[in-house]
Structure formats: C-alpha cells, structure tokens
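Can you give me the bound-state structure? Components:
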Amino acid sequence: MPLLGGIRGRLTATIVALIVVTALVLGVGAYAFVDASLHGGLVRDAEAQARFDLTVLIPARLPTPTREAFDNSGLVRAFEGRSVRLIADFGDLVEPFRSIRSQELQAAVANGRLGYQWTAFGDQAVLIIGGRQPGTDAGFYFLHDATSLEQALTQLRIGLGGGALLLALVGLVAARWVARGVLAPVEAAARAAERIERGDLSARVPVASRDEFGTWADRFNRMAAALQETIGRLEASQAQNRRFVADVSHELRTPLTALVAEASILREHLGALPPDARRTGELLVADVARLRTLVEELMELSRFDSAAEQAAHEPIDLVRLVRAVAAARLPDAALVLPGEEPVVVVTDPRRIERILGNLLDNAREHAPNAPVEIGLQVHPDAVVLSVADAGPGVPEDRLERIFDRFYKADPSRQGGSSGLGLAIAAENAALIGGALSARNRSAGGLRFDLRLPVTEPLPGGDPAATSEPDRGARSTAQEPIR
Amino acid sequence: MDARILLVEDDPSIREVTGIGLRNAGFEVTTAADGLEGLDRFRAEPFDLLLLDVMLPRLDGLEVCRQVRRTSTVPIVMLTARGDTLDVVVGLEAGADDYVKKPFEVPELVARVRAALRRAGRLADDGDRLHLGPLSIDVGGRTVERDGEDIPLTRTEFDLLAELTRHAGQVLTRDVLLDRIWGYDYLGDSRLVDVAIQRLRAKVEPDAANPSLVLTVRGAGYKAAR
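Here's the bound-state model for the whole set.
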C-alpha cells in the first residue's frame, strides 16, 4: 500500500502531521523562552556588575582616567581574574574591537548610559557591556565569555530537534497502529467477502466492537448465513436429485439387462409370429433399445456428476481416429482433413470417439439425408475437430441451451434420441480438457467445434505446412462434397 | 456343439433368458443363483466354460473366479454391470479371460462364449520354440521360461506373448490383437488389450516400468522387440 494511498495512509499522515506541528510549536516556544531568559539573566547580572565597577571599583583604582594610568593600574589583570576582558576607551580605541562595537552601543556609551551587545569576538561568543565612568569621558567595555551559554543553547536545540524527530517517528508507528486498528474491521470484511466470492460460504466477519462497524458486521454475517443456508439447501437437493437418478438408473439396470436379452431372442423369432403379434414384437424390440440408450446415458451422466469418470490419455492420430469413427458411424460424411499426415495429440481416444459419435448421431437425426462434413483443423495451440450439418440449424437464442440435459430443439419431434447425447458430448469434452461449442453456419445448418488444446508440439512441425488454408476458409460457406 | 456351460447369475429373469439363448445356440447349460452354489456345482461336475456375474449374493463373482482359478484353467467370462476400467482390471486379475458388459444381447454373448471356447480348445498348431530376449516360449507345451525358470502365464497372456513374438518387430494394432487373441471383431474396447499387456509385462519384463520386450508404439499398438 502506498504511504498516502487509501484511508489508512491519509489517517496516518494526518496524525503524524498533528504530532509534528504540536512538537514544533512546543519545542520552538520552549527554546525561545529558555533562550530569552538565559540571555536576559546574563545581561542583567553583567549590567549590575558593570554599574558597580564603573561607579566604585574603577574610580578607586583610576583617579585620573588616562591610557598610561590605566595601563599601570592592573585593572585588566584584576578583571581577567573574573574571566572578564576589560577594554578602556580614551578616544584611542584600536582594531579589531573598534569595528566590532555596534552603533547603538557606541551611542549609549557616549550618552553616559549602559549598553550591551551580543557578538562574536575571534572564535568566542561574547556579551559586551559598555558604559562611561561618571564624570569623565573614559568609556569602558566589559567582554563576558558567552561560549558556554551558546553551547548550552546549541545542545538544547539539538535535543529539541532530535526529540521532535523521535516523536514524529513514534507518532508514525503509533498512527499506523491506530489506523490499522480503526480499519481492521473493514479489512476483515474485505477478506470475508473475498472468501465468499471464491465459494467459501462459511466466511464471517468478526464482530469485535459495539460501534457502527459491529452493527454492519452483524448484518453482513446474517446475509452470509442466509446465503449459505440457501445454497446449502439447493446443493443438498441437487445432490439428492443426482443420487436419485443414479439409484434409479442402477436399479433399472437389472430388469433392463433381462429386457435386452429377451428382446434379442424375440427378434430372432419375429418371423414365426402372426402379423399383429409380429408388429408388436418389432415395436417392443425397438423400444427396449430406446430404453437401453436412455438408461445407459443417464448412468453415464450420473458418473460424470459424481466425478467417477477418468480420462485415459495416450498419443493418438486424430486423422486415423476420425476416419475410423466416420466409417463406422456415418460413412456418407465428407471429410475435410489437413492432409494424409498423422495429427498426433495426447488425449483419450474413447472420449473423442464418444463425442464425435454423438455429434454424428445428432446431425443424422436433425438433418436427415443432408450432407454432413467432418473437419479437422490444426492450429499452433489447438486442434479443432468439427461436425457441420446442412439441416435447419437452431435459433440463436437457443444455441447455448442445446447442451442442456433433455433439451430438444424441436419439442414436437419424437425422435429416437434421448436428448442427452449433446450433454454427454459436452461432459466428455470437458473431461479431456477440451471445449465443445455450437454455432449456425452462414450457409445454413449447425456446426459443432471440439477444441482440444495442444500442450506439446505436434509431430510434423509447422502446422501451416499440413493445413490447407483455402479449403479451411471455405469450409463453412461451401456445401460439402459428398 | 455340445459344450457344457455353468451360468452363475442371481437375477431369475436374466438367468432364465440367458439359459434359453445359450441352449438355443447348442450349449448344455447348468445354472446357479449365487456364488457358493456356483462353486459347489463347478466342483461337482466338469464344465467347459464358466459364465460369472460379478455381483452375486453370498460369494461375489470375483471371489468365485479366484477360487476356481486355483485348480482350473477353464475359460471364465465375467458378466459385469459396469464397463469401468477398474472392473475390467479387477476381473482380469481375478483370472477371468474376458468380460461382457450388461446389458448384453444374447447373440453377442453367444459369440463371446464361442470365441472363448475356441481359444481354449485351440491346440498347439505349432511345435516350435519361439524366442524373445531372454524368454524361451514353448508353443506346443504352452510354457514360457526365462533362464530355465518357468513363468506362469494365463491362457490369454500366453496367446498374446506368442502372437507378438511370431510377428516380432511388426506393429500389431489393438484391433488386430482383439481379433486374433480374443477371437471376435469387437469395435471399441481396447482397454482389454492394454490391461492384458500390462499384466503380461509385469510377469515377463525384467523392468516392467521400462519395457524392453513388449513395446508400445505410440498411437498405433504394440510390438515385440526384434
């Protein structure tokens, strides 16, 4: 998460800014107060001392204020003992002090008042107190060493600055912690919603507080619980339905086995029956076959539903397989193959055979006597097996429903098919990682595409060399050649 | 034809109609309604072929198959409710030679029974001794030796090995093997061949995971190493 992005970032930044401003105001104020009181105190003490020196000490040691008398008075040494440097001005002041002295100080001394000046003398910070010896023209300047004071103030500045920085850091950490605490329910809710989205309907938001978040979390949880219950009920009833279908088909199998065996014997002896009984017998034999198909397809679908079906992959030449299935199931179908070269893919040949067989059955039923075309196209990442008929097609709005169980495009048609063939084909396609789709052809009729992803390169290399682009492009527009 | 068949099936209708169909086809049929009865009947008189339902009361068909196999090489055809690979494998491992998936039409069952009987009755047409790698195959005596040691093979496994060895180096498709070994033109279930090949390899290959004698030809079928 970027530092300033989102609510957490903004909350953190605000808290830190508040802390920093407060720290700055307090620090600067405290510093200004200490600075003023230290400097002011030093000035007051030094001025009081200077007043005493000018009126008492110096007049006593220097009755005649001249440079010679001053130099001989030992006053300089005496002041050095107090760590004060004394400079006398008899109108003969020399550099560098002469130019260090400020105008204000000079004016105060000339007017007989005490004046002071903060300045640097050499590498020293100094406080200069200046005054005139009463009754004379002699000015005196007392230079007090202020280095220790400035050092103390520098340390104070460093201390305050460091403190403010530390406070800002602590504030940052604390602010993030506070922000996380405030936003934790929101994040917990986001995680719960994400889990529900992924299908984990047992996800709930912890209700940790009695505030607005707590109320909201409680509502969220009740919604999730209602959703879970509804879906659980639906799943249970669906599972029950599927179990029922599986049980029914299984129970039907034993009488069906007897029926199929009986019908197969009856069929052999139909010729010996009187005409009415013979016709009834023929119908019986045909209906047993229909019932058999239906039960076997139901059982197959219930095996898919219980995930009992497994694919057995092996390398297989689709060209050979397509030829074999077409020859067995619909010898009239036109084949549009990429050539005579084998197209070897790793897949489950039994599933391909089942899918192709069901598609051919479907074409034969819905477009009887119309030409059917079986195509095989090789693409770099997939192989597409197609079955196209020239029948009536299916209205666009019903196209996606044709893979539904028991879906019949034309409900009035009482054909022999169970309505499960395409559903089974789609289940088989999904099992081998393929995708089965249907669309209407521009020239009329329905076209199914079974798309099989190719995960390893096809033997034979360049697909362009084996496909025939012209024929492939025209395949949907042109009537197949029979 | 006068072959004697023992049919073990628990459902009375299926048992009766199957019996009728087999008798019409010229077989002599004895029936049993559960596994124990079937085993008793089998031990009481000689039979040429055993038709066994998988799901049987008292003693299931697979167990009957295993017990019969301990003492007999009689051809066994299983009637299985499901055509799952698992059922096929378990059935073959129990010692069955073939299986027929329910529901079945009687003519189809009769064809399978005849094929199984034909294979069982097929006499050694060849007194030769064939060789495949370290294997020595006595076609007449129906035995296989490796380094002088006898390898016990079922009838189906032996036929498969002999057929592949006769055409060493040549690819035999699953359909061809189904036709020549199982003896009927059977569109579809090549798993029968795959399972039998796996079981054969487990017995004759030095390393069944890396076969050196019975080889798979990708996308085509099987061949014996030359």
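A couple of observations. Chain A touches chain B at residues 253-265, 268, 292, 308, 310, 312, 314-317, 320, 328, 342, 344, 350, 353 (CB under 8 Å). The longest helix of chain A spans residues 212-268.
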